[in-house]
Amino acid sequence: MKARILLSGLVLTILSGCGSGDDVSDLQSYMDEVRARPKGSIEPLPQFQPYEPFSYSAAGMRSPFQPPIKIDLAARQKGSKNIKPDENRPKQFLEGFNIDTFQMVGTLANQTGRYALIKGAGGVHRVKVGDYLGQNDGRIIAITDSQIDVVEIVPDGEGGWLERPRTLSLIEGS
């Protein structure tokens, strides 16, 4: 019973605090101040700059966390005018892609010869010795169970051409 009396007294005290005092002069003065402000004083929204996307163009560059490679210009291999790509031969499909995108995934052999399976350029492709792949006139010169040997013809930067050997190793479990 005592708890009910205390609770009702507390409720009456709270309610009496809400309604007591008819002094709203501070509210009236604030409203008068707002009404006295000149019309149209709202500032326009600031003009936002359109978003300009950033395209990262250093993906193909050397990692800054690896030491730079020192190139000895005197010992650098010179190209030859006798070596050059055959511009008259028809280009094969796999020459339209970078050689780094290819992975050797297996070999096949039958009565006609030995073939390698490479993954890249949107699928798995069968290649043989003498086929071309990559953008630097890379010609396949040998196929073994574990690798494909390719010779590319690249410019030396001084008007000549160099033959650069490359190897595509078998990727286990692919």
TrEMBL record:
Alphabetized PROSITE patterns for the sequence: PROKAR_LIPOPROTEIN
Protein name per the record: Type IV pilus assembly protein PilP
Gene3D superfamilies documented for this protein: 2.30.30.830
Organism of provenance: Pseudomonas duriflava
InterPro entries on file: PilP (IPR007446)
